[in-house]
Amino acid sequence: MIKKLPVALPVWTVAAPMVAGGLLLGLGQGGLSAWLLGLVTLTLVAAVLAAVHHAEVVAHRVGEPLGSLLLAVAVTVIEVALIVSLMLAGGEGAPALARDTVFSAIMIVCNGIVGLCILLGGMRFKEVAFKVEGTSPVLAVLVALSVLTLVLPSFTTSSPGPTFSNAQMVFAGVASLLLYGVFVFVQTVRHRDYFLPADGANDDAHASPPSTPVAWVSLVLLMICLVGVVGLAKLLAPSIEAGVRQVGAPLAVVGVIIAMLVLLPETLAAVRAALANRLQTSLNLALGSGIASIGLTIPAVVLLSLFMQNSLVLGLSHIHMVLLMLTFGVGTLTLGTGRATVLHGAVHLVLFTVFLFLAIVP
Predict the structure, then answer these.
(1) Structural domains in the chain?
(2) Mean pLDDT of the chain
(3) Does the pLDDT at position 59 exceed 80?
(4) How far is CA 134 from the centre of its chain?
(5) Tens digits of residue pLDDT in 155-174
(6) When comparing pLDDT for 10 and 201, which is higher?
(7) CB-based contact 289:266 (threshold 8 Å)
(8) What are the b/e assignments for 254-292, b being 16+ CB within 10 Å?
(9) What is the pLDDT of residues 276-310, one digit of tens each?
């Protein structure tokens, strides 16, 4: 996933996860003063950047598309852990937190990340290429999962409001997990070649992969980074919620902020791939993360809701349904030709801007 890797890991990529872990252990669950809030924020950003580096080291060792899948799953683990921890903590917006975060993740990956990568790649190379056989089926899975888990709850009649009954939640959770499992099998085994960089794209096949010891060290440090990011983001959550209330924005904005935090490693890795003329890798990262966000998050929150007897609101509002359908309609046109230009990227980024604006001013 990267052009050239050093024999040894940079010092900062080793120090960042250690500092994040130490800071997390030292602060515990106490309140944060202004200077501690700044320190936690800076450490969180450093841990995210280190996570990207270590994920790329491991990914370069195992190759594509397994490398993209690894980073997508790692990022989704962060998302699930944050959502579950905040739901357990309770609060006014807890029942809808999973819905808001998953929907935000879909908007971010399908419009924000895809649009930014196509725009930057198109500006540098005029036209960027990818494999339709690797993008169209993935988009179909994402559409099916999104409608099943985020749209149907607003139309079912077994329970009041935009919710599923217990039986419906179990069915949706199992269906999401099974469909995600099939996607992983197709991407990594059955049709692995569909997800490799398109012909003519600049890849890193000739770059020497890192040694096995370096890859294992990076894997361990990646896990430490993820734990640090989850813990530090949880420490920041009360400040985020307080800030959202202070500016008078809807509580759904908290889900948007959480999704943007956890998808930062994915975004950086996808942009770097696009700038190296490997848009297929960028799309693997973005769309794969969207599928993982639903396929792993929904089963996790369903289990939590059943065992903890917590209410779970999954159905989207009408305005969010319109945005979702518009996103998938435009995405189908963008990803259906195998080539894209800056215009495609600009359209997706405009939709992303609309999503952010309506999240603050619904």
Answers:
(1) 11-360 (1.20.1420.30)
(2) 82
(3) no
(4) 19
(5) 988 888 788 888 999 999 99
(6) 10
(7) yes
(8) bbbbbbebbbbbbbbbbbbbbbbbbbbbbbbbbbbbbbb
(9) 898 988 898 888 888 888 888 888 888 888 887 77
What are φ and ψ of residue 247, in 5° steps?
-85, 0
Burial-class residue 4 by CB neighbours within 10 Å (0-12, 13-18, 19+).
Answer: exposed
E strand map for 108-169: 128-129
133 membership: H or E segment, kind and range = helix 132-146
Check if the beta carbon of residue 259 is closer than 8 Å to that of residue 79.
Answer: yes
Structure tokens at 33: 């003063």
Question: Which pLDDT score, from 0 to 100, does residue 355 have?
Answer: 94
Q: d(Cα 56, Cα 284) in Å, to the nearest integer? A: 14
Taking the CB of residue 152, how many other CB atoms lie within 10 A of it?
A: 16
> What letter does residue 152 receive in the DSSP assignment?
G
Q: Cα–chain-centroid distance for residue 250?
A: 22
Q: Quick one: what percent of the chain has pLDDT higher than 90?
A: 26
Half-sphere exposure at residue 306, Cβ-oriented, CA atoms within 13 angstroms: 15
Cβ proximity of 278 and 290 under 8 Å: no
Q: Are strands 128-129 and 339-340 parallel, antiparallel or unpaired?
A: antiparallel
From CA 106, how far away is CA 218, in angstroms rounded? 28
Residue count of the chain = 362
Distance, CA of 102 to CA of 277 (rounded, Å):
29
- Specify whether the CB–CB gap between 288 and 69 falls below 8 A: yes
Do residues 322 and 150 make contact, with C-beta atoms less than 8 angstroms apart? no
pLDDT digits (tens, 9 = 90+) for 198-254: 664 554 444 567 777 888 888 888 888 878 877 787 777 777 777 777 877 787 787
Task: Give CA–CA dist 174/172, Å, rounded.
Answer: 6
Q: With beta carbons less than 8 A apart as the criterion, state whether 254 and 97 touch.
A: yes
Residue tagged 């189908």 (tokens): 332
Ranges 81-85, 94-98, 184-188: which has the least confidence: 81-85
Q: What pLDDT shows up at residue 323? A: 95
Query: Which CB contacts under 8 angstroms, 24+ apart, belong to 187-190?
Result: 187/65, 187/69, 187/138, 187/284, 187/288, 188/65, 188/66, 188/69
